[in-house]
Amino acid sequence: MSPPIGFTLRRRTLLAGTAAAALTHSMTRDASAQTAEAPQPVGPQTSTVTLVVNGTPREITVDNRVSLLDALREHLKLTGTKKGCDHGQCGACTCTVNGERINACLSLAVMHDGDEIETIEGIGQPDNMDPMQAAFVEQDGFQCGYCTPGQIQSARKVIEEIRAGIPSHVTGDLTAEIAMTDAEIRERMSGNICRCGAYANILSAITQVAEENA
């Protein structure tokens, strides 16, 4: 026969056990409530849009959360536009929409139904390069080349913006014609990161094109 077990119920032990049981019950109840009350999608989850890419209308059906970048790369197989940070910080995904440069990773595809979109594939091909593409080759404006499509897209628009009189943070006299200075170009290209550090040659390529088309 086993000896009797000595046990004394202490007030502290009782309170601790009661509190633990109450907490466990509360957490279980909250988890059940959250599961039961999970919001359901409202409206369609996909949309069909027509993107006019490099002059050609392309109709695609995409999840409403798909970015313009992923629509170009994954749905239309136009992989020249690169995915770098996917947070709008590196500029690798720069393309133009209705003539304005944007970070394609920060824009939803469904926002651009009917818009004119230009990617690096629409600028030029190896046997018929755009002047900016040719200048990047001539000035050795790239190393690994990953950021180059976005750099070229931005570079072309930088020249247009300066000539259109659109000021930047380094523009001095807002009443005078904006000069095509190194400082202006650097400031306007600051959203495009080159991790290889080819900035000096990129600047040379942009300057070359600006002078040739002056």
UniProtKB/TrEMBL annotation:
Residues 47-123 form the 2Fe-2S ferredoxin-type domain. Keywords: 2Fe-2S, Iron, Iron-sulfur, Metal-binding, Oxidoreductase. This is Aldehyde oxidoreductase. One of its GO terms (molecular function) is 2 iron, 2 sulfur cluster binding. InterPro entries: 2Fe-2S-bd, 2Fe-2S-bd_dom_sf, 2Fe-2S_ferredoxin-like_sf, 2Fe-2S_ferredoxin-type, 2Fe2S_fd_BS, Aldehyde_Oxdr_Iron-Sulfur, Beta-grasp_dom_sf, TAT_signal. NCBIfam families: PRK11433.1 (NF008514). Residues 26-46 are annotated as: Disordered. It comes from Pseudooceanicola atlanticus. Pfam families: Fer2, Fer2_2. SUPFAM superfamilies: 2Fe-2S ferredoxin-like, CO dehydrogenase ISP C-domain like. One of its GO terms (cellular component) is periplasmic space.
